[in-house]
User: What shape does this take?
Amino acid sequence: QSALTQPASVSGSLGQSITISCTGLSTDPGTYNLVSWYQQYPDRAPRILITEGNKRPSGVSDRFSGSKSGNVASLTISNLQADDEALYYCCSDTTSATLIFGAGTKLTV
Amino acid sequence: QIQLVQSGAEVKKAGASVKLSCEASGYPFTTYNIHWVRQAPGQGLEWMGWINAGNGRTKYSQKFQDTVIITRDTAANTVYMELPSLRSEDTAVYFCARHRSGWWLDNWGQGTLVTVSS
Assistant: This one.
């Protein structure tokens, strides 16, 4: 697995929904592609939003949802709020027991 | 509560080494792996490696395979990440984070800024 590709930026209006894609997941049989999504504000540590493709840890708003199809994972944020404006990163495990991050997507609300 | 507290900012000359720490509390230290992730100024997250806090086994990104050294001290509930022979490109914020089954990182340290000057 060489790289995960995300759009550099996306934008949306308050109350709208947006989707951020993450392309480049492995399609090899036997790979798990355990995708997680993180939100990061400037000068802050990342925060987990979605695990294993579509699970929300306790405390994460149900406005955040994840999905996966083929070699593409997606993060959807519904009912956009002003404080959703942040950087979003996808991350996947690899067959080498390592992690790889996407380059990040800047969301402008 | 679960906390990962990292050591303070460092300013180093190129060629020097740095050893960062990440002290864990609020959970059984040896039962979770700890990862290191760095972020250069204005750049994205870059995964570096992880350590099994129980048995000390490590795994590194291919990029850092021959440079980074991750260790742990179970008596101190602390994980360390050493970067020998720093270069200006190593200027970044370094984060430690706890691994959860399913390959996600739930708790993160506050980050340590390492500045390398030539």
Remarks:
- Chain A touches chain B at residues 32, 34, 36, 38, 40, 45-48, 51-52, 55, 57, 87, 89, 91-93, 96-104 (CB under 8 Å).
